[in-house]
Prior knowledge:
There is one protein chain. Helices cover about 45% and strands about 15% of the residues. By secondary structure, it is an alpha+beta fold. Strands 1, 2, 3, 4, 5, 6 and 7 form a 7-stranded antiparallel beta sheet that branches. A 3-stranded antiparallel beta sheet has the order 8-9-10.
Amino acid sequence: MALTIEQMAIETAFKVEPVLNLINKNLLIKDRYRVLNLLFETSKTNVFKGIDVKKKRHIFIYVTKNQFFRRNKDLRNWIQDIKSLKKLRKDAQVFEVFDIDLWKKKLFLVTNAFEGIPMIDLIHHRLELPIPFVLNTILNLAECLKKAKRCSLSTSLSKEDLYLSKDGSIQLLKFQKSLFNNHLLNKSDTEEIYFLSCLLYELLMNKAPFEKQGSTAQLESNHLLASLRVRKDQVSSDIFTELSEIFVTCAGMSVENSIDSLDKMMEKLSTLLKKSSLIQEDHEEKIEKEELNSAFDVVNALRGEDEIVEALSDSNFGNEYSRIWRGLDVENHSKFDSDLIFKSCAFLVILLSFAYKLYF
């Protein structure tokens, strides 16, 4: 089936082109980690794709930038933040750290590889992302934040430390120090709910909320709804109002019926995701039927007929192939020869249509 506008946006966003190809440089760190190419740049590190020649596995290699490496206090905090996720290392949503060491006056970190890109890069593409994809991403991140809270970890994070794949699954490198004190952090989900609601807004709007002075949650919610209504793909239009309502009840904690727990937020998002997925499935089935009808329309146009000819039902005659074996007179059945030719054409057109969908 041909890709929709939103699916094409996903394919474009996750098409990773190396910033710098080093595969012919034979760069080997500690006689073990072979550097292949530079994939991403963050404010603190260069992220390389590599191979652990000893374990024979693909890896990510984070090499700190010189200006960051010189800031001793910030560097120590960065290392501590990474090590603090030790309690969550067994979780599939957290990068597994294999090594962290010094090499040629640079600090490097080795983790598992991940088929995805940093969240910050995805947002910079400014593409119209499918709503089910956005909802699934927020739900996966909310689940990760819940686990972190149960381990008494800070859940404040940077979008460049959060990686995302095509299916909405995530991998987290580290959390950072929270602006909230520990007492508030353990008692309330305020920080997590606010962050998730703002991220939901940004993934749908391609810009962060509350950038203008005097903006309120209700005002930003109105902007979100207006933007959703002019999307190119209106398949999920039935849930646009509910999306904007979730944002205002999560980001505006003082409003009536505000959502004050991660569980409540996740419940509402899950309901919307199921609804949106069903809408998408119905839409795809409709498209498939339209494509099938179009195939028959082509054949009928060649025949000069407006309606599809019904299949022959003469039990004495049998199917179009059987008469060859029964030795029937071809001249007496010239009409049936014509039907056979055009029905064969219809079959070929349908077959080619499905082959095209599978290939593309």
